[in-house]
Amino acid sequence: MRIERATNLNNLKRNIDQNSEAQLKAVKSILNKVREQGDAALYELTEKFDKVLLSELEVTEKEIEQAYSEVDDEMIAIIKEAAKNIEEYHVQQKKQSWFITKEDGTLLGQKLTPLDSVGVYVPGGTAAYPSSVLMGVIPAKVAGVGRIVLVSPPGKDGKLPAGVLVAARESGISAIYKAGGAQAIGALAYGTETIHKVDKIVGPGNVYVALAKREVFGTVDIDMIAGPSEIAVLADETASPVYVAADLLSQAEHDPRAAAVLVTTSEKLANQVAEQVKLQLKTLPRQEIARESIETYGAIYLVDSLSQGVDVINEIAPEHLEVMTEHPMELLGKIKHAGAIFLGPNSSEPVGDYFAGSNHVLPTSGTARFSSPLNVDDFTKKSSIIMYSESAIQENAKKIAAFARLEGLEAHARAVEKRLGEHEHE
Predict the structure, then answer these.
(1) What positions does the entry give for Zn(2+) binding (predicted)?
(2) Alpha carbon distance 425, 421 (integer Å)
(3) CB atoms closer than 10 angstroms to residue 421
(4) Backbone dihedral region for residue 299 (phi beyond 0: left; psi -120 to 50: alpha; all else: beta)
(5) How many Cβ atoms are within 10 Å of 281's Cβ, its own excluded?
(6) Residue 126 has pLDDT above 90, yes or no
(7) Which end of the chain, N or C, is more open, meaning fewer C-beta atoms within 10 Å of its C-beta?
């Protein structure tokens, strides 16, 4: 890993707009095809991109039963426990409708309503992601969403990974479809004969999925435009170079465009981590992916103080942030921008990915400056409630009418004045 002073952070800029016009053109073509041809387009595009000819799109009960036979009991127990942890965490986020009353009889409030339907996208490709099933489905269920469907690209055998199907069943979802890429996003947004349209699409995917989600936003809601994964570690001389290197590689193995960054006050640690990364890379099964990520987007930044290090972190606004310093809690209040913050030497990033209970669908590419992890609020909508009493409208109608006329909206003014019995403008 290259080691340098923290002056130029441009190597972390990897948003989807860096991709070619050809990719966007392809995505628009796929979306139009799905909108016009429905299921037929899904079968054709699945054969084209996933190299598999499907006989049906929906996962059958027999396939789910087979998945349980392929996953050992210990792993099923782990999935169940992770699901329980995730549910317990997200239950704490649940909000209620609220109302207030005033002395003049006015009632104001906010009504929370769960979304009617949500589509959860689970990536496929080079790895299986049962954890993404849990992270997408469980907060939607906690919110009270009525219909939750899951889409994921099939493997060459025409099936979804056994772990994905087990996680789906343990999450309480049964509507599972074999569809991936931009075509799956199109199916969720526009609907087909088999996959009915939803109100919101959540879940990470590759660049084609990200571009497709951006294109259909407005027709449906989306959670975020997720870019490649990233991790930043803020460390002082007390940090373990073995731990730091391992955690950097945990994200680098996701994607050649993933970013792994260390920000440290210790030049000694910097050199030790660089050496450990080389050493640990040698035995990684996905070393080619991780190596390209480290060489292209990996970096070790030296800073003069932890205060400067926090400034660098806030500028990066990383998806995952690990704080491996002697007193990590002392820095927490100063950290403004990060998707998830892992404190101390035992809080390795995969703890949050899989088991602790927090959501691992997180803002990337600096969007943690203004957005949040996937959460229960993402699956609800809010309606304002206004109920004016007769005394309240009598007291305030003229003020409201004056405001309306300030904006040149006479009909607005007259609408409230009707309640006063003043008809001079009729």
Answers:
(1) 251, 254, 353, 412
(2) 11
(3) 7
(4) beta
(5) 18
(6) no
(7) C
129 is in an annotated binding site: no
DSSP 123-169: --TTS--HHHHHHHHHHHHHHT-SEEEEEE---TTSS--HHHHHHHH
- Residue 412 in marked binding region: yes
DSSP designation for 11: G
Whole-prediction pTM: 0.92
Give the sign of the dihedral formed by CA 232, CA 180, CA 216, CA 145: negative
* Per-residue burial over 218-240, b = 16 or more CB atoms within 10 Å of its CB, e = otherwise: ebbbbbbbbbbbbbbbbbbeebb
Residue 7 confidence (pLDDT) above 90: no
pLDDT in tens, 328-378: 999 999 999 999 999 999 999 999 999 999 999 999 999 999 999 999 999
Provide the pLDDT for residue 19.
58
Q: Which residue in 224, 413, 392 sits closest to 426, CA to CA?
A: 413
d(CA 173, CA 162): 15
**Is 287 among the annotated ligand-binding positions?**
no
Determine if residue 251 is labeled as part of a ligand binding site. Answer: yes
- For CA atoms 259, 265, 267, 270, the dihedral sign is negative
Write out pLDDT tens, residues 21-79: 889 999 999 999 999 999 999 999 999 999 999 999 999 999 999 999 999 999 999 99
Any idea which residues carry the catalytic annotation?
319-320
Q: What domains sit in the chain, N to C, each tagged with a CATH number?
A: 3-11+228-370 (3.40.50.1980), 38-97+113-222 (3.40.50.1980), 389-420 (no CATH)
Is 375 annotated in some ligand binding site? no
